[in-house]
Amino acid sequence: MSRRFPDFSALELLVGVDDYGSLSAAGRRLGIPQPNASRAVKRLERQFGVPLLERKTSGSSLTAQGTVVAHWARIVLADADKLLDVAEGLRIGHSPELTVGASMTVAEHLLPRWLGRLRGLHPEITVHLQVYNSSQVFERVITGECGVGFVESPTVPPELHSIAVARDRLIVVVHPEHPWARTGKPIPIAELAGTPLVVREPGSGMRDTLDMALQEYDRAEPLLELGSAAAIRTSVLEGVGPAVLSTLAVGDHVSSGALRTVEVEGLDLSRLLRAVWRSPRRLDGPAGELVRLACGAGAGPEWESDR
């Protein structure tokens, strides 16, 4: 296999397939026409010597090798973003900067609004957003790579401070033709636990919340482990199997009838979304300003960690 560096656009496309469920959707997000996207991935396959996409008439999905490469591509692209940020900082001088780490659900559905408000109040602040799962956000906040993080995990490492910034709920969703949808009746918790599900990878807040809720039950092996809520949602839409997802990620699809929700007897998957940071207990500067906006407190009232 050639040791030359891969094309970054092709890596972005591969990650996009994981995030958005197909090569065409990834190409649209990146502004790359379908023929060019297909050629770019084929060149990457030839360079690596392994199949990265499983091509079907209904669309493309990642192979097992493609899933591994997409995971490492995320890391490479994140580091490339850091390089560009450093170069930009050298070019424009020393303006206030903030690096934010966020889990996928928060980054996709909540942070754009919070960052927009911060930008409106302080246009001089340069914000760098890095998207990881919750355990990776914890790691980067602990090491100081991120000034503040936003996570979905039900637990927070003891060395970090935290405060709740939003509430969310996980729900069971299925394809309209799934047997659970056709009966229209709640299912027992044990049945959910014993059913192979399409889930996030270990370390994600969504996976941790589900695992904690079902820890007393015999669990089936996952049907699929995917790296984003968008990929899981696409799998459910294609009838692959049931999943547990945030209402933030599937609200529109449930409203349209493309997905059906399934009640589970005695199971409440409500959760808090939290901001996390290192000492001191009261967060100041751009990071503190962002957390105040996320809490809905504006810029005035003082606040402290709730732990």
From TrEMBL:
For this protein, the record's Pfam families field holds: HTH_1, LysR_substrate
UniProt-listed Gene3D superfamilies? Periplasmic binding protein-like II, Winged helix-like DNA-binding domain superfamily/Winged helix DNA-binding domain
| UniProt keywords, alphabetically | DNA-binding, Transcription, Transcription regulation
Any idea where the HTH lysR-type domain is?
A: 6-63
InterPro entries registered for this protein in UniProt: LysR_HTH_N, LysR_subst-bd, WH-like_DNA-bd_sf, WH_DNA-bd_sf
UniProt similarity note: Belongs to the LysR transcriptional regulatory family.
Q: What is this protein called?
A: LysR family transcriptional regulator
Query: To which species is this protein native?
Result: Nocardia jiangxiensis
